[in-house]
Specification:
The protein is an all-beta fold. It has one domain: TolB, C-terminal domain (Neuraminidase, 6 Propeller), CATH 2.120.10. It contains no helices and 23 strands. The protein is globular and about 45 Å long. The chain starts with a strand and ends with a strand.
């Protein structure tokens, strides 16, 4: 059985602190806005880790027990939205509910849909979805009462969309150009701009710090994985760059990949990142 290590890294000192070691696969930690808990996925369910008390609490998602590692909190921290694989067709769809238990509400009737971001004003969700045989970036109002909006229309894979803290931009990763790199566009899907152009790495899952200054992302070596793949069980790096662009620096190297930082894992004060590594 693979063991998971939930950790926190200080972005200034680069020092890692172990939070808890788990038997089995734990994935995708994100911080509550008050800084007291980490929310993570394990075996199709959500859990909260109390950082002060060192205690785990399950989050009741009712009959939905096939959650993947795409979950985000509302800006006020009162709700959680997540992707769940429906049993009848095995397609992922997005739901929302009160953070510590309640009746999940379906947001995206179409699947597959993989959640990644919630707008700072709480009004919209942004996600990767496969429609007509192609993965692109879409957004929808958080209640799911309107038609979804397609934001990208590229033949390559676009994934990992997330709003900037001011709501003006959406960051995402795309294989436009042949390698997986970090991109940015305005929230309406216009003005696409490449933010990385690495010759050695495929870059995934950009996460903007709450203060808007930094972007963290996950990097795979190009000679080890395909541009469209983000598997577990690889030697990867969490890298950091300024949101205005420029060179990226390696924050931590680890054994991980899928599940390490699939969702935004910044601390509310923008000083630390939570992540998961795995024991080979």
């Amino acid at each position: 059985m693979r063991k998971s290590l939930l950790q926190v890294v200080d972005i200034d000192r680069g020092e890692c602190r172990a939070v808890q070691r788990f038997d089995g696969v734990v994935e995708a930690p994100n911080w509550t806005p008050d800084g007291t808990r980490l929310i993570f996925n394990r075996a199709g369910r959500l859990y909260a880790w109390d950082l002060e008390r060192g205690k785990e609490t399950p989050i009741d998602t009712g009959s939905l027990d096939r959650l993947n590692n795409d979950h985000v909190l509302s800006p006020d921290g009162r709700e959680v939205a997540f992707s769940h694989r429906t049993a009848d067709d095995n397609l992922s769809r997005i739901y929302r509910m009160p953070l510590f238990g309640g009746v999940p509400q379906l947001v995206t009737p179409n699947g597959p849909s993989y959640l990644h971001g919630w707008s700072p004003d709480g009004a919209r969700l942004v996600y990767c979805a496969k429609r007509h045989g192609q993965f692109d970036i879409y957004s929808i109002d958080a209640d799911g009462r309107e038609e979804e909006r397609q934001l990208t229309r590229t033949p390559e894979l676009d994934d990992g969309p997330e709003y900037s803290p001011d709501g003006r931009h959406i960051w995402f990763n795309s294989a436009m150009g042949g390698t997986m790199q970090i991109w940015r566009m305005t929230a309406d899907g216009s003005h696409l701009m490449p933010m990385t152009a690495d010759a050695l790495f495929h870059n995934w899952f950009p996460h903007v710090s709450p203060d808007g200054h930094w972007v963290a992302f996950l990097s795979y070596r190009q000679d080890e994985v395909e541009a469209s793949d983000h598997p577990p069980g690889k030697s990867v790096a969490i890298r950091l760059m300024e949101a205005s662009g420029g060179a990226a620096r390696t924050l931590v190297e680890l054994f991980g990949g899928q599940g390490t930082i699939n969702v935004n894992s910044w601390s509310p004060d923008s000083r630390s990142l939570a992540f998961v590594s795995y024991e080979p």
